[in-house]
Amino acid sequence: MRTAVVTGASRGIGAAIAEGFADVGYNVVINYNQSPAPAFSLADRLSASGAAVLLCKADVSVQAEVEAMLSAAAEKFGGADILVNNAGIAEQALFSDISEAMWDRMFDVNIKSMFLCTKAFLPFMLSRKYGRIINISSMWGICGASMEVHYSASKAAVTGFTKALAKETGPSGVTVNCIAPGLVATDMNKDIDESTLNGLITQTPLNRIGTPEDIANLALFLASEKSGFITGQIISADGGFL
Ligand code: NAP
After folding, report:
1. Please, is 231 exposed, middle or buried when counting C-beta atoms within 10 Å of its C-beta (0-12, 13-18, 19+)?
2. Which of 135, 157, 168, 203 would disulfide-bridge 178, Cβ 3.0–4.6 Å?
3. How far is the CA of 3 from the centre of ligand 1 (A)?
4. Which residues have a catalytic role annotated?
5. What are the pLDDT digits (tens) for 41-74?
Protein backbone atom coordinates (compact mmCIF):
# COMPACT_ATOMS: atom_id res chain seq x y z
CA MET A 1 0.00 0.00 0.00
CA ARG A 2 1.51 3.31 -1.06
CA THR A 3 1.50 6.30 1.28
CA ALA A 4 0.93 9.87 0.10
CA VAL A 5 1.66 12.99 2.13
CA VAL A 6 -0.34 16.04 1.08
CA THR A 7 0.62 19.37 2.62
CA GLY A 8 -2.10 21.98 3.05
CA ALA A 9 -4.84 19.39 2.74
CA SER A 10 -7.43 20.97 5.02
CA ARG A 11 -9.07 22.89 2.20
CA GLY A 12 -9.16 23.60 -1.52
CA ILE A 13 -6.81 21.83 -3.92
CA GLY A 14 -4.96 19.87 -1.19
CA ALA A 15 -8.19 18.48 0.23
CA ALA A 16 -9.28 17.33 -3.26
CA ILE A 17 -5.89 15.66 -3.82
CA ALA A 18 -6.06 13.89 -0.44
CA GLU A 19 -9.56 12.69 -1.25
CA GLY A 20 -8.45 11.47 -4.67
CA PHE A 21 -5.60 9.46 -3.14
CA ALA A 22 -7.91 7.93 -0.54
CA ASP A 23 -10.42 6.96 -3.25
CA VAL A 24 -7.81 4.91 -5.10
CA GLY A 25 -6.57 3.19 -1.94
CA TYR A 26 -3.47 5.08 -0.82
CA ASN A 27 -2.71 5.69 2.83
CA VAL A 28 -2.98 9.47 3.19
CA VAL A 29 -1.25 11.94 5.50
CA ILE A 30 -3.49 15.00 5.69
CA ASN A 31 -1.48 18.02 6.78
CA TYR A 32 -3.16 21.19 8.02
CA ASN A 33 -2.09 24.24 9.96
CA GLN A 34 -4.73 26.79 10.92
CA SER A 35 -7.97 25.10 9.82
CA PRO A 36 -8.60 22.11 12.08
CA ALA A 37 -12.36 21.94 11.47
CA PRO A 38 -12.33 21.12 7.73
CA ALA A 39 -9.24 18.93 8.20
CA PHE A 40 -10.93 16.81 10.88
CA SER A 41 -14.11 16.59 8.85
CA LEU A 42 -12.16 15.45 5.74
CA ALA A 43 -10.25 12.86 7.79
CA ASP A 44 -13.50 11.57 9.34
CA ARG A 45 -15.16 11.29 5.95
CA LEU A 46 -12.23 9.44 4.35
CA SER A 47 -11.83 7.13 7.35
CA ALA A 48 -15.55 6.33 7.27
CA SER A 49 -15.18 5.24 3.65
CA GLY A 50 -12.39 2.84 4.63
CA ALA A 51 -9.24 4.88 3.96
CA ALA A 52 -6.22 4.83 6.25
CA VAL A 53 -5.51 8.45 7.14
CA LEU A 54 -3.22 10.33 9.48
CA LEU A 55 -4.07 13.90 10.39
CA CYS A 56 -1.02 16.06 11.09
CA LYS A 57 -1.02 19.63 12.28
CA ALA A 58 2.20 21.26 11.13
CA ASP A 59 3.27 24.65 9.86
CA VAL A 60 5.30 23.32 6.95
CA SER A 61 7.55 26.37 6.97
CA VAL A 62 8.92 25.32 10.37
CA GLN A 63 11.51 22.54 10.44
CA ALA A 64 10.61 21.15 13.88
CA GLU A 65 6.95 20.83 12.88
CA VAL A 66 7.82 19.08 9.61
CA GLU A 67 10.06 16.69 11.55
CA ALA A 68 7.18 15.89 13.93
CA MET A 69 4.98 15.14 10.91
CA LEU A 70 7.72 12.90 9.52
CA SER A 71 7.92 10.96 12.79
CA ALA A 72 4.15 10.49 12.91
CA ALA A 73 4.04 9.31 9.28
CA ALA A 74 6.97 6.95 9.85
CA GLU A 75 5.30 5.45 12.91
CA LYS A 76 1.88 4.99 11.33
CA PHE A 77 2.75 4.14 7.72
CA GLY A 78 6.48 3.39 7.73
CA GLY A 79 7.31 6.46 5.64
CA ALA A 80 5.99 7.84 2.38
CA ASP A 81 6.15 7.09 -1.35
CA ILE A 82 4.49 10.26 -2.59
CA LEU A 83 4.83 13.85 -1.44
CA VAL A 84 2.56 16.60 -2.73
CA ASN A 85 3.97 20.00 -1.79
CA ASN A 86 0.71 21.91 -2.03
CA ALA A 87 0.51 24.21 1.01
CA GLY A 88 0.63 27.82 -0.05
CA ILE A 89 -0.47 31.36 0.61
CA ALA A 90 -1.25 34.25 -1.72
CA GLU A 91 -1.54 37.96 -1.12
CA GLN A 92 -2.22 41.00 -3.27
CA ALA A 93 -0.13 44.11 -2.73
CA LEU A 94 1.57 46.76 -4.80
CA PHE A 95 5.27 46.04 -5.06
CA SER A 96 6.01 49.23 -3.13
CA ASP A 97 3.83 47.99 -0.25
CA ILE A 98 5.49 44.57 0.09
CA SER A 99 7.48 44.60 3.32
CA GLU A 100 10.45 42.39 4.12
CA ALA A 101 8.24 40.41 6.52
CA MET A 102 5.60 39.83 3.81
CA TRP A 103 8.31 38.73 1.37
CA ASP A 104 9.88 36.34 3.88
CA ARG A 105 6.53 34.80 4.89
CA MET A 106 5.61 34.22 1.23
CA PHE A 107 8.89 32.47 0.55
CA ASP A 108 8.82 30.52 3.83
CA VAL A 109 5.38 29.04 3.15
CA ASN A 110 5.54 28.65 -0.63
CA ILE A 111 9.11 27.43 -1.20
CA LYS A 112 11.02 26.84 2.04
CA SER A 113 8.24 24.40 2.97
CA MET A 114 9.08 22.37 -0.16
CA PHE A 115 12.73 22.26 0.90
CA LEU A 116 11.83 21.11 4.42
CA CYS A 117 9.19 18.54 3.45
CA THR A 118 11.28 17.12 0.63
CA LYS A 119 14.32 16.85 2.93
CA ALA A 120 12.11 14.98 5.38
CA PHE A 121 10.39 12.49 3.06
CA LEU A 122 12.83 12.00 0.16
CA PRO A 123 15.10 9.58 2.09
CA PHE A 124 12.24 7.02 2.24
CA MET A 125 11.84 7.23 -1.53
CA LEU A 126 15.57 7.00 -2.23
CA SER A 127 15.91 3.91 -0.07
CA ARG A 128 12.93 2.30 -1.87
CA LYS A 129 14.23 3.37 -5.30
CA TYR A 130 10.74 4.65 -5.99
CA GLY A 131 8.98 7.90 -5.33
CA ARG A 132 6.86 10.72 -6.65
CA ILE A 133 7.22 14.36 -5.66
CA ILE A 134 4.59 16.75 -6.99
CA ASN A 135 5.00 20.46 -6.40
CA ILE A 136 2.16 22.91 -6.84
CA SER A 137 3.23 26.14 -8.51
CA SER A 138 0.95 28.57 -10.37
CA MET A 139 0.53 30.02 -13.83
CA TRP A 140 1.53 33.33 -12.19
CA GLY A 141 4.93 31.78 -11.49
CA ILE A 142 5.33 31.40 -15.26
CA CYS A 143 3.85 34.63 -16.59
CA GLY A 144 3.81 36.91 -13.50
CA ALA A 145 0.82 38.60 -11.88
CA SER A 146 0.48 42.31 -11.26
CA MET A 147 0.23 43.12 -7.51
CA GLU A 148 1.64 39.67 -6.73
CA VAL A 149 5.39 40.03 -7.25
CA HIS A 150 6.27 38.08 -4.08
CA TYR A 151 3.72 35.34 -4.87
CA SER A 152 4.81 35.09 -8.52
CA ALA A 153 8.51 35.00 -7.56
CA SER A 154 7.95 32.28 -4.95
CA LYS A 155 6.03 30.18 -7.49
CA ALA A 156 8.73 30.70 -10.14
CA ALA A 157 11.19 29.31 -7.59
CA VAL A 158 9.15 26.10 -7.50
CA THR A 159 10.02 25.62 -11.17
CA GLY A 160 13.77 25.70 -10.60
CA PHE A 161 13.44 23.50 -7.51
CA THR A 162 11.49 20.91 -9.52
CA LYS A 163 13.79 20.80 -12.51
CA ALA A 164 17.01 20.65 -10.48
CA LEU A 165 15.82 18.01 -8.00
CA ALA A 166 14.46 15.84 -10.83
CA LYS A 167 17.97 15.61 -12.29
CA GLU A 168 19.39 14.47 -8.96
CA THR A 169 16.75 11.93 -8.00
CA GLY A 170 15.92 10.45 -11.42
CA PRO A 171 18.66 7.81 -11.24
CA SER A 172 17.11 6.65 -7.94
CA GLY A 173 13.65 6.18 -9.44
CA VAL A 174 12.14 9.28 -7.88
CA THR A 175 10.28 11.59 -10.25
CA VAL A 176 9.74 15.28 -9.46
CA ASN A 177 7.13 17.24 -11.34
CA CYS A 178 5.25 20.49 -10.94
CA ILE A 179 1.65 21.41 -11.63
CA ALA A 180 1.02 25.03 -12.59
CA PRO A 181 -2.70 25.62 -12.04
CA GLY A 182 -4.65 28.47 -13.51
CA LEU A 183 -7.42 30.10 -11.53
CA VAL A 184 -9.12 27.50 -9.32
CA ALA A 185 -12.28 27.96 -7.25
CA THR A 186 -10.97 27.86 -3.68
CA ASP A 187 -10.80 30.17 -0.66
CA MET A 188 -7.62 31.63 -2.14
CA ASN A 189 -9.73 33.45 -4.73
CA LYS A 190 -12.79 34.24 -2.66
CA ASP A 191 -12.06 37.98 -2.61
CA ILE A 192 -11.66 38.41 -6.38
CA ASP A 193 -14.38 40.75 -7.60
CA GLU A 194 -16.83 39.58 -10.23
CA SER A 195 -15.61 41.72 -13.11
CA THR A 196 -11.97 40.61 -12.61
CA LEU A 197 -13.15 37.00 -12.42
CA ASN A 198 -15.19 37.35 -15.61
CA GLY A 199 -12.22 38.97 -17.34
CA LEU A 200 -10.01 36.03 -16.43
CA ILE A 201 -12.65 33.55 -17.61
CA THR A 202 -12.94 35.41 -20.92
CA GLN A 203 -9.17 35.04 -21.41
CA THR A 204 -9.40 31.28 -20.74
CA PRO A 205 -10.01 29.19 -23.88
CA LEU A 206 -12.00 26.60 -21.91
CA ASN A 207 -14.15 29.49 -20.68
CA ARG A 208 -14.27 28.60 -17.00
CA ILE A 209 -12.15 28.56 -13.89
CA GLY A 210 -10.78 25.29 -12.62
CA THR A 211 -12.07 23.05 -9.87
CA PRO A 212 -9.86 21.51 -7.18
CA GLU A 213 -10.68 18.14 -8.80
CA ASP A 214 -9.18 19.32 -12.12
CA ILE A 215 -5.86 19.68 -10.31
CA ALA A 216 -6.31 16.53 -8.21
CA ASN A 217 -6.84 14.41 -11.35
CA LEU A 218 -3.47 15.51 -12.72
CA ALA A 219 -1.78 14.97 -9.35
CA LEU A 220 -3.19 11.45 -9.21
CA PHE A 221 -1.76 10.66 -12.63
CA LEU A 222 1.66 12.09 -11.73
CA ALA A 223 1.59 10.06 -8.50
CA SER A 224 0.82 6.82 -10.32
CA GLU A 225 3.18 4.27 -11.83
CA LYS A 226 1.78 5.24 -15.24
CA SER A 227 3.71 8.54 -15.12
CA GLY A 228 7.05 6.75 -14.71
CA PHE A 229 8.75 8.35 -17.76
CA ILE A 230 7.83 11.92 -16.83
CA THR A 231 10.11 13.99 -14.61
CA GLY A 232 11.32 17.59 -14.28
CA GLN A 233 8.19 18.89 -15.99
CA ILE A 234 6.07 21.96 -15.32
CA ILE A 235 2.59 20.92 -16.41
CA SER A 236 -0.08 23.58 -16.75
CA ALA A 237 -3.68 22.89 -15.77
CA ASP A 238 -5.12 26.28 -16.60
CA GLY A 239 -7.86 25.83 -19.18
CA GLY A 240 -5.45 27.04 -21.86
CA PHE A 241 -4.93 30.47 -20.22
CA LEU A 242 -1.19 30.58 -20.98
P1 NAP B 1 -6.48 27.54 -0.08
O2 NAP B 1 -7.86 27.07 -0.37
O3 NAP B 1 -6.25 28.90 0.47
O4 NAP B 1 -5.79 26.44 0.85
C5 NAP B 1 -4.46 26.63 1.26
C6 NAP B 1 -4.03 25.40 2.01
O7 NAP B 1 -2.65 25.58 2.38
C8 NAP B 1 -4.83 25.20 3.29
O9 NAP B 1 -5.07 23.84 3.48
C10 NAP B 1 -3.87 25.74 4.37
O11 NAP B 1 -4.02 25.07 5.60
C12 NAP B 1 -2.54 25.36 3.77
N13 NAP B 1 -1.45 26.13 4.35
C14 NAP B 1 -1.20 27.45 4.23
N15 NAP B 1 -0.11 27.77 4.94
C16 NAP B 1 0.33 26.62 5.53
C17 NAP B 1 1.40 26.31 6.38
N18 NAP B 1 2.28 27.25 6.78
N19 NAP B 1 1.55 25.02 6.80
C20 NAP B 1 0.68 24.07 6.40
N21 NAP B 1 -0.36 24.31 5.59
C22 NAP B 1 -0.54 25.58 5.16
O23 NAP B 1 -5.59 27.49 -1.39
P24 NAP B 1 -5.65 26.56 -2.68
O25 NAP B 1 -6.25 27.36 -3.75
O26 NAP B 1 -6.19 25.23 -2.37
O27 NAP B 1 -4.09 26.49 -2.99
C28 NAP B 1 -3.32 25.29 -2.89
C29 NAP B 1 -2.04 25.49 -3.67
O30 NAP B 1 -2.36 25.74 -5.04
C31 NAP B 1 -1.22 26.68 -3.21
O32 NAP B 1 0.15 26.36 -3.26
C33 NAP B 1 -1.57 27.75 -4.23
O34 NAP B 1 -0.55 28.72 -4.35
C35 NAP B 1 -1.72 26.92 -5.48
N36 NAP B 1 -2.51 27.55 -6.53
C37 NAP B 1 -3.80 27.91 -6.32
C38 NAP B 1 -4.50 28.51 -7.34
C39 NAP B 1 -5.93 28.94 -7.21
O40 NAP B 1 -6.42 29.65 -8.10
N41 NAP B 1 -6.65 28.56 -6.16
C42 NAP B 1 -3.88 28.74 -8.58
C43 NAP B 1 -2.55 28.38 -8.74
C44 NAP B 1 -1.88 27.77 -7.72
P45 NAP B 1 -4.72 25.73 6.90
O46 NAP B 1 -5.92 26.47 6.42
O47 NAP B 1 -5.03 24.53 7.75
O48 NAP B 1 -3.70 26.63 7.53
Report:
1. buried
2. 135
3. 21
4. 151
5. 999 999 999 999 999 999 999 999 999 999 999 9
**Ligand 1 neighbours by CB, cut-off 6 Å:** 7-14, 31-35, 59-61, 86-90, 109, 136, 138, 181, 183-184, 186-189
**DSSP sequence for 100-120:** HHHHHHHHIIIIIHHHHHHHH
Ligand 1 atom with minimal separation from the 11 CA: 9
The dihedral formed by the CA atoms of 221, 226, 228 and 232, expressed in degrees to the nearest 10: -30
C-alpha 54/C-alpha 130 separation (Å) is 22
Closest-CA residue, ligand 1 atom 16, reads 87
Supply the pTM of this predicted model: 0.99
Nearest to 161 by CA among 145, 178, 144: 178
Ligand 1 atom closest to the Cα of residue 185 is 41
Bridge-based pairing state of the strands 27-32 and 3-6: parallel
Per-chain mean pLDDT for the chain: 98
Residue 172, helix vs strand vs coil: helix
Could you tell me if residue 237 is left (phi over 0), alpha (psi between -120 and 50 degrees) or otherwise beta? beta
CA–CA gap between residue 120 and residue 124 (Å, rounded): 9
- Ligand 1, pocket-test mutation among 6, 42, 86, 192, most atoms within 8 A of CB: 86
- Please state, in angstroms and as integers, the Cα–Cα distance from residue 209 to each residue in 131, 141, 189, 201, 219, following that order: 31, 18, 11, 6, 18
CA atoms within 13 A on the CB side of 36: 2
pLDDT for res 62: 99
